[in-house]
Amino acid sequence: MPISEQIRALVATGPLAYLTTLNADGGPQMTMVWVGLENDEFVCGHMSAYHKVHNMRRDPRVALALLGGGKNAFGLHEYLVVYGQARLTEGGAAELLQRLAHVYLGPEVEFPPEAVRHQLGYITHIAPTRFAGVGSWNK
After folding, report:
1. How many C-alpha atoms does 105 have within 13 Å on its Cβ side?
2. What pairs with residue 122 in β-bridges?
3. Residues with Cβ < 8 Å from 33, sequence gap 6 or more?
4. 101-120 b/e with 16+ CB inside 10 Å = b?
5. Which of 11, 123, 138, 4 is nearest to 66 (CA)?
6. Which helix (H) or strand (E) holds 2?
7. In this predicted model, what pLDDT tens digit does every residue of 45-99 receive, in sequence order?
8. Torsion of CA 68, 105, 112, 17, to 10 degrees
9. How many CB atoms lie within 10 A of CB 33?
10. 64 Cβ contact list (under 8 Å, min separation 6)
11. How far is CA 78 from CA 34, 70, 99, 127, in A?
12. 103 close to 67: Cβ distance less than 8 angstroms
């Protein structure tokens, strides 16, 4: 599914993002992540095989919620929800997180910390299947 220019503009601002995966019992597991775009996929990096990584290996269905910066005519905060399928790749997480750190923390920041930079980590690629939320992307 193509990602609109409005959504690309939102992601470029470095919004707070929450990734929801499914636990083995079907319940949700949520974590805050930094998010970027590569082609028509949302991407986030993980330096270790955290619980969310195990969940996505078992069940690739995910939801990603991003907080927008504006409010609509009713005074509600804008937000975007991305429903999609996750695909994990091993390696490259430190490089992705360094690129995203410039958006989320500042242009001079070095991230991740030196102690973990050598780890391969994982990159989550989310192919969107549906968008929802409040904002110009949901018209």
Report:
1. 12
2. 46, 90
3. 17, 18, 19, 44, 46, 64
4. bebbeeeeeebbeeeebeee
5. 11
6. none
7. 999 888 999 999 999 999 999 999 999 999 999 999 999 999 999 999 999 999 9
8. -10
9. 19
10. 17, 18, 19, 20, 33, 35, 42, 81, 82, 84, 126
11. 18, 6, 25, 22
12. no
Question: Which contacts (CB < 8 Å, 24+ apart) does range 35-40 have?
Answer: 35/11, 35/64, 35/66, 35/100, 36/11, 36/96, 36/99, 36/100, 36/103, 37/3, 37/8, 37/11, 38/125, 40/1, 40/2, 40/3, 40/127, 40/128
State the Cα–Cα distance between residues 4 and 133, nearest whole angstrom. Answer: 14
pLDDT, tens only, 20-53: 999 999 999 999 999 999 999 999 999 988 899 9
Domains of the chain (ranges, CATH numbers)? 5-134 (2.30.110.10)
Q: How far is the C-alpha of 88 from the C-alpha of 19, rounded, in Å?
A: 14
Whether the model pTM is above 0.90: yes
As given in the structure block, the two tokens for residue 79 are 């937000």
